[in-house]
Amino acid sequence: MNRYTLSLIITTVIYILLGLSIWFLLSLEIPKDKPHEKIIKIKIIKPKKVETKEIKKPEVKPALEPKPKIVPKVKPKPVLKPKAKVIPKPKPKVVPKPKAKVIPKPKPKVVPKPKPVLKPKTETKEVVKQVVKEKVYEKIIEEDFTDIDIAFTKKVRENIIKNKKYPRSAIRRNIQGIVKVIFDIKRDGSISNIRIDTDSKILEKATRKSLNKSFPIKVPSEILNNFPKRNIHVNIEFRLHG
User: Which residues of 2-31 are buried (b: 16+ CB within 10 A; e: fewer)?
Assistant: First the structure.
């Protein structure tokens, strides 16, 4: 309950009681026979004024608006562009040129000179003719061997190119070029030590299939002593026409 309300109620009750008491006294009949009159003094007690102290309402200070925080501007770090990797160009493979195989020429048979026999001149002429014929025959045999060797090598190249098949995937992708192949041929006609120079795996695979179809090959008995034959070069061309 409020302090001011309480003091007001108390004051009001006191005033009502005083009013009732005055009214009660005035309503009483004072008898005449009585000589002595009683004078009743009534002191009106004024209620003390209750000093009401004004309660100062606490001053409500306006709420200070929070100062906005100054967020320092963060400068974006410069994005470093990745340096383009310098891919070194592949150096072209240097295929060593096969050294021309020097086929040793069969040494001419040394025919012992016939001892001079005192015979007629006609016999010495026949002996000279026979020696000349033997030397000519040896030259013919040597030339035949080299021709067989060249013919054999030519046949090998022709067989490989004949068995070449252009891959469909290479045709679709327009892949073409020349594939360089170096290999050896053993005495039994099988192939070994295959080296293929190309940038296309599709063409490399097609070249290996062509080699597998072409070997083993029959080696002529006349040139069998020259085997194994090493570093045979073949260029297989894959070219789209039109």
Answer: eeeeeeeeeeeeeeeeeeeeeeeeeeeeee
Q: How confident is the model at residue 7 (pLDDT cuts 50, 70, 90)?
A: confident
CA dihedral of 198, 202, 205, 206, whole degrees rounded to 10: -100
Beta strands (DSSP E) in 70-131 are none
Determine the Cα–Cα distance for residues 37 and 35; give it in Å rounded to an integer: 6
Per-residue pLDDT at 175 exceeds 70: yes
Task: Name 33's Cβ contacts closer than 8 Å, sequence gap at least 6.
Answer: none
CB 121 within 8 A of CB 153: no
Q: What is the pLDDT of residue 3?
A: 74
pTM value? Answer: 0.41
Residue that is written with structure tokens 């068995």 in the block: 163
Q: Name the nearest CA neighbour of 186 among 163, 214, 216, 211.
A: 216
